[in-house]
Amino acid sequence: MVLPIVAYGHPVLRKKCEDITPDYPGLSELIQNMWETLYASNGVGLAAPQVNVPIRLFLVDSKQMTDHFDEEERLLFGDEQGIKQVFINARILEVNGEEWPYNEGCLSIPKIREDILRPQTLKIRYVDEHFQPHEETYSGLTARVIFHEYDHIEGKLFIDYLKPLKKKLLRKKLDDIAKGKVEVNYKMIFAKV
């Protein structure tokens, strides 16, 4: 089932999310619904708070990007393979490498894209949907998508990395999103402002 996506301005997007246990009610159905929602909205990552569930869960499918690289992207990112993975109770252990800009967007902040600086690599500990533990290092676009989704479970948004003047210039667009004055091809939940 495709779930509605929470829009900018909703308080759940600013909540630091809680860890869960394997007996979390309806977890496998939630994960399945999140995958369906991700693909229906043409995303590459989706965090539980974006579907109004404040838990430490997010999905990443960076294969969609890496499998369709053009020549220029191949030169920039080499043979990066991408992943399709569920991350539960994730904790970033370390970050490394030069920060580099990339034009990011967010399903919860539609029609706004900005260049955001993020480090090249990250090391992360998490459990998968079967609660099997993992400790992995990711780089490139996959690391960027993980950073972005990880921020969601920490109550952060990509616009938080913008300089104050840039954020001020986006204020009207952000206010319009919060008020539901935005057209997208997926269902959204708006804050009551």
Automatic annotation (TrEMBL):
<feature type="binding site">
    <location>
        <position position="106"/>
    </location>
    <ligand>
        <name>Fe cation</name>
    </ligand>
</feature>
<keyword id="KW-0648">Protein biosynthesis</keyword>
<dbReference type="GO" id="GO:0006412">
    <property type="term" value="P:translation"/>
</dbReference>
<feature type="active site">
    <location>
        <position position="149"/>
    </location>
</feature>
<protein>
    <recommendedName>
        <fullName>Peptide deformylase</fullName>
        <ecNumber>3.5.1.88</ecNumber>
    </recommendedName>
</protein>
<dbReference type="Pfam" id="PF01327">
    <property type="entry name" value="Pep_deformylase"/>
</dbReference>
<feature type="binding site">
    <location>
        <position position="148"/>
    </location>
    <ligand>
        <name>Fe cation</name>
    </ligand>
</feature>
<comment type="function">
    <text>Removes the formyl group from the N-terminal Met of newly synthesized proteins. Requires at least a dipeptide for an efficient rate of reaction. N-terminal L-methionine is a prerequisite for activity but the enzyme has broad specificity at other positions.</text>
</comment>
<dbReference type="GO" id="GO:0042586">
    <property type="term" value="F:peptide deformylase activity"/>
</dbReference>
<dbReference type="InterPro" id="IPR023635">
    <property type="entry name" value="Peptide_deformylase"/>
</dbReference>
<keyword id="KW-0378">Hydrolase</keyword>
<comment type="similarity">
    <text>Belongs to the polypeptide deformylase family.</text>
</comment>
<keyword id="KW-0408">Iron</keyword>
<dbReference type="GO" id="GO:0046872">
    <property type="term" value="F:metal ion binding"/>
</dbReference>
<feature type="binding site">
    <location>
        <position position="152"/>
    </location>
    <ligand>
        <name>Fe cation</name>
    </ligand>
</feature>
<dbReference type="InterPro" id="IPR036821">
    <property type="entry name" value="Peptide_deformylase_sf"/>
</dbReference>
<keyword id="KW-0479">Metal-binding</keyword>
